[in-house]
Amino acid sequence: MNDVFTELSLIYDRVTTHINKQNLICNMRGVCCDFYKTDHRLYATKLEIDYMLFCSSKPIGVAPKKCPWFLDGRCNARQGRVLGCRAYFCTNEGASSEIYELFYQEIKALHKKWHIEYLYVPVFKYLSEREQHDESYY
Ligand code: SF4
Question: Within 6 Å (CB) of ligand 1, which residues are found?
Fold first, then answer.
């Protein structure tokens, strides 16, 4: 794993610790991952998406409103999933926003530190376009 991915994964570890201290529970109903049923949009930085691709199986059948790792009602990208996935709790959207803002700033700062182009994009639309235009990407 390269150094910037290591730093990102350490931020994610602290997200988990922060969430655990707040006793926020995810019952893994999978409802929030079904973007056809919800009106949610998942955004992330390019760095986060690169890390998710690095950690996960090759996404198949990417579409603008479909997470390719949402299979049989379960997330198949737990290790690399982006902050928006980690921070969201349908039982407490206020806490979700606070967690997101807190750690998003740290992730944004990584781009500056490592001189990485900063892109903040709708995840599945971006993946879908990338798949179409750059097959070597995966
Ligand atoms: S990566 Fe996992 S948590 Fe995030 S939308 Fe896809 S299935 Fe849900």
Answer: 33, 42, 67, 69-70, 75, 77, 81, 85
